[in-house]
Amino acid sequence: MFYGKRKFPFWAKLAGLALLVVAGFLTGYLGYTLYRELTAPPPEMPASPGPVPLPEPSLQFQEPPGVHTPVPAPEPPLPPALPGRAKSDQLWLHVVKGTYRMYLYRGRNVERTFDVAVGANGGQKQRVGDSRTPTGDFTVQQIQRSSSWTYDFGDGNGPIPGAYGPWFIRLKTPGWSGIGIHGTHDPHSIGTMITQGCIRMRNHELEELKKTVFVGMKVVISE
């Protein structure tokens, strides 16, 4: 039986040719893409951050909560400039009203410092009863035992025994009388302006001072 050669239409040939071209293109494209992926270098990893620098420890001392550095006590005021010349072995007193202190000098050297109280009003004494301590150069006139003396301060409490302490060192203050250095029944008043013109001391310190005081001793009182 004879079979004849089958003929395909022209459009079928064109379609087959187009399919071959498309297949070849896809094969080449896919091969090229696969080749690029296989030969491409690996992607770069993001740079890792370096070590974070720690803050340097402070050299300044940090106090724990609730703890405070104690504040040093203020230094006592220096004695004032000498009001005049003094012999090297001469004992004398200098009362400074503004700092409520009395200095016992030997010549130009301070041997002892005492806290005192002075007149209730400041400035130079002007009249009797003005509660001012006079300023100037004076001397010790008399040393009297005053432990039995009383004084009425006019506060309604009547005469107060021991108001002058154990001793009254009377000063020779021209123009004024009754001015002296004495003790007190009220030690809390020391360091204030409270007296009627005298210089007031603590009783136990007055006892110490009395051992060195003598009639004619120089006493300087300044502002």
UniProtKB/TrEMBL annotation:
Q: What is this protein called?
A: L,D-transpeptidase-like protein
Q: Catalytic positions?
A: H182 (proton donor/acceptor), C198 (nucleophile)
* A GO biological-process term: peptidoglycan-protein cross-linking
Composition bias, kind Pro residues: at what positions? 45-56, 71-82
Q: Name one GO cellular component term.
A: extracellular region
Spans through the membrane: 12-35
Query: Which pathway?
Result: Cell wall biogenesis; peptidoglycan biosynthesis
Q: Where is the signal peptide?
A: none
Arranged from A to Z, the UniProt key words for this protein are: Cell shape, Cell wall biogenesis/degradation, Membrane, Peptidoglycan synthesis, Transferase, Transmembrane, Transmembrane helix
Q: Tell me the organism.
A: Aminivibrio pyruvatiphilus
Q: Where is this region: Disordered?
A: 45-83
Q: Which Pfam families match?
A: YkuD
Q: Where is the L,D-TPase catalytic domain?
A: 91-222
The record's GO molecular-function terms, alphabetically, read:
peptidoglycan L,D-transpeptidase activity; transferase activity
Per the record, the domain of life is Bacteria
